[in-house]
Structure formats: C-alpha cells, structure tokens
Amino acid sequence: MRLNQYISSSGFCSRRQAERLITAEKVLVNGEIAPHVYFVEENDLVEVEGHRIKHASQKVYMILNKPSGIICTASPAVANNIIDYVSCPERIFPVGRLDKETEGLILLTNDGSVVNELMKEENHQEKEYIVTVDKKITEPFIDDLSNGVTIYNPRKKSYTTTNACPVIQLDEYTFRITLSQGLNRQIRRMCRHFQYTVTHLKRVRIRHIQLGSLEIGQWRHLTEEEIAGLNRQQ
C-alpha cells in the first residue's frame, strides 16, 4: 500500500494531509525520512511527527466481473494483472483464476481461510458458466457433456474423466453448465473433445454468490449476507 494511503487508512489524517507530511519530511519509515513515493511492507515501522502509525487491516471480500484480457495474477510484473485493474488500497489476491480470455465472476480477498476453503478440490464447490460455441448444439452433445468427458489434465500429465454435471441448453449455440471441479481449461477441453470450439465463456456464479447485474469491468464488495454464507460453509 502507498505510504499516504497507509497513513490515512489508520485514521491519523486525510490522504492529502498525509501527502503534505511526507513532502515536509515529517514521516519516518524504519527510522529514516520517507521518500515521496513509498510502498509500505508488512514489517515496516511508520512514524508521523513522533506518532507510530498502526494500520488495522480489515478483511476485504469483493467480486469482479472480469473482462477478457485481464490476467488473474497478483504479480505486478505481469501486464494487465487483475490487482492493478481493480486498484484496491488493501493487499488482496484473486481466489483461483479465470483464463485470460474468459469473462465473469471472480472473487478477490485478503482472507486466506476463504481461499483455502474454496480452492480445495475435494470440497466440490459449485461454479456456474454460460458457454457459447461455434456450431449448433445437439441433444447428444448436451447429454455427453453432462455425463462426464475424458480430457487431458496437464497438471497430472494424464487423462481425467470429468464429474457428471448439470448442463442446460439455452439456445442454438449457448448452454449453461455447473461444475464442481477446477481442471485447467476444463470447459474448453470438454467441448473440444466433441469438435466444438468455445467462442465465449462467462462465469456467473461461485457457490451462493451470483454475478447478477454487475456490469463487465465493474466490481463490488460482498454483502454481509454473502460473507456470512462463505463463513457458514467453511
């Protein structure tokens, strides 16, 4: 977090006032005059005019309707990373990932316990997607998808049969699918097995959290009810 944000979020003063104090060299970081631009690390000691600043980090839970082209990584070295895109003053990280070209709901938080729970494959957390393919959908295609598909798993370097899952056709080229697995590019690989190519993929739900009417590229904090639902199901 930037130093001026760190000071203001502690309640000591406004961000603008913090900026003035930094410029006036009245802010020390680890006993030395702070540079004008500084990002506070976890173990830094920050003092303003002799007062030690204590930043009480709050737990943050948000969802983003991720646009295509944004990469689900917290690494600042990666262009178009999701953390820079959201630009949250707290240190947060994405829960899992969506492929660069995939749109839709992704959670971001600084609560490690939620991340661990949602990422455990054995917990079978439901994730729902809307999928558009390049040619007309047939009834056998829908049936085959729902019954499980044998696809290559690059992480295990072996073939895996996907779990049976609900699949509902929405129109000639679009269907809704609910997965309880998180295999690499799973939906795209499942469709490719039957000579279909995914042209648009959007996640609309993770467990009890719905994307709803959130516009693409927009984010919001979770409601108290949504957070309570996460905690209840841990």
From TrEMBL:
Matching SUPFAM superfamilies: Alpha-L RNA-binding motif (SSF55174), Pseudouridine synthase (SSF55120)
Domain of life from the UniProt record: Bacteria
For this UniProt record, the keywords arranged alphabetically read as follows:
Isomerase, RNA-binding
Originating organism: Sporosarcina jeotgali
> Member of which family?
Belongs to the pseudouridine synthase RsuA family.
> What Enzyme Commission number(s) appear in the record?
5.4.99.-
Entry annotated with the keyword Zinc: no
Signal peptide boundaries? none
Which top EC class applies here?
isomerase
Q: Which residues form the RNA-binding S4 domain?
A: 1-58
**Protein name per Swiss-Prot or TrEMBL:** Pseudouridine synthase
